[in-house]
What does this fold into?
Amino acid sequence: MSTSAIEESVASSNLTLRDAINQTLAQEMRRDPTVIVLGEDVVGGRGGTSDVEEAAGGTFGVTAGLAEEFGLRRVIDTPITESAIIGAAAGAALTGLRPVAELMFIDFIGVCLDQIMNQIAKFRYMFGGKARTPLTIRTMVGAGLGAGPQHSQALYPFLSSIPGLKVALPSNPYDAKGLLAQAIRDDDPVIFCEHKALYNDTADVPDGEYLIPFGEAAVTREGSDITVVALSRMVNLANEAADRLAKDGVSVEVIDPRTTSPLDMDTIYDSVGKTGRLVTVDESNPVCSMASEIASAVACEAFEYLRTPIVKVTAPHTPVPATPHLEQAYVPSTERIERSIRRALMDY
Amino acid sequence: MTLPREILLDGYRRMRAIREFDDRMRREFEAGTVPGFIHLYIGQEAVAAGACIHLNDSDYIGSTHRGHGHCIAKGCDIGDMLLEIYCKQDGLCKGKGGSMHIADMEKGMLGANAIVGAAPPIAVGAALTARTLDNKGVAMSFIGDGASNQGTVFEALNLASILKLPMIFMYENNGYAEFTGTSYHLGGDIAGRAGAFDMPAEKVDGTDFFAVYEAVGKAVERGRAGEGPSAIEAIAPRWFGHYEGDPQAYRSKEELADLRNTSDPLLRFRERVLADGQLGADEMDAIDAEVRADIDDKVAVAKTAPKPPAEALYEDVYISY
It folds into this structure.
């Protein structure tokens, strides 16, 4: 390989998570004319009184510029009509397109769950393996913006329990790009969960295309004393907690599963085999959370590795309050994660 | 309206196949040979036949829990359908869908659907594919009077309307949503509601093949020309219960007895083509005999065909995982 080719292959830019997603959508739409984007205000401004062609590009600007490059036949503004957005994406996927549908907030899943749970997830199985549903549903998850009980939930655990769906949860711009490209090219339906408090996080992201396979966890920090498995935004907080503990000589290994369906338990078992201790961190409510699922899998399949009880860190069994200081108390914090790790390290 | 002989023969054959198929399923269900639930299409044959006769394999339909007639009219293989209903490994869905989920992607049949009102948004997606690929295809969703009250149907109407998609909302008003009559469950009027979404919406006698044929022909032509969606409400009483075994305590004996005289789409078709001299009784009788023999043979095959192997439980959840 020539020097210039190497330079080209590693060329990267410092991007926000928002821009990494935007760049991926554009790259995938360029390489495959069957990729379409549809959702509420993915362009924005249809039917308004100004002559602004693209008034929004998504409520958080994630789809900005796509309509200009790909036109309104491929970047489709819909009414506020989640059942029809997701249902139409399902039908389009069954018949030869590769739609990326936007379910603006995951909280809105209540008005389109049938399409996700009974239709999209089951087409392949109930049609005897003869249907393909290459569909990506992009959706925002998570608390932290004071958006209140119906715009802040982390509802990915129950989706991860539905056979037929895949669920991806990027924690940083690099993973967001590779996972989204994989989601769009994947022949199975994928729920792609973007944490709204991560949109402005930045990282170096390669300019070229790349894929991150599903079901491969990332070890974001190697350590030997304790394993922390964290998801989405919680990965950052777990790494912050690990930084603090490092000052006290505690070596924390942090694992980001990146996808919860499929879920890479092998990486977690291997890590717990090394450390003997486990903390699971999840912004979801505690009952049937991913924190519970991962803890249960380790307790059932790798009990002999454990030297101390597993500690789970989740949101409480409450809705997400709009009240800023209560919301702050709701979301697991770096301090709580640090305290939980210290508890898990106590000798029994 | 005078139709070419081949259309008449084709339409009659589709209707007779649906009648024979579901009448046989009714008897087999009573005899206890069919697993699960079945929902008979008898009485509504002219709707599926008169509608699907306008469609090609590259056009799509979304169906309902009462989907046997739609499958047959859209060209699904009757033997493969029977294998599916008997949950056998060579069924259209390898035996894992059953009566309420028969699908055939090669025939543009996007699935019978056990969730009432779920298919219209999916069919709108198929219409979106046709528009995106600009292939002159159309999509059609069958919608019962019961489903007509679901919010999903209104969302599908609105999206198809604003995007001007090549979509046909094919309502089948059979008089009952499960055990509840339209005089109770329907506020307003189905065609009127659809028409409010800025599309042509016509009400036709769904026991009259010719009326359905004509109305759907216009709607399909409009869709292929890129002029947008249409709705048709075909009124065709359901002869049997919501599901097979439903004792229909909510219907009078007179209503049920009258159906065979006043609402038999096959009888009406025969009387008309005989009166006009368009087809002979002998050629229709020949179709009847052929269809019956074919179904006899295929039911026998389906009953003794192999079941899916144990490992099929775990197969086809994902393409890769």
User: Anything to note?
Assistant: Chain A is about 35% helix and 20% strand. Chain A has two domains: 3-206, 218-345. Chain A touches chain B through 46 residues (CB under 8 Å). The CA atoms of residues 16 and 202 of chain A lie 4 Å apart.
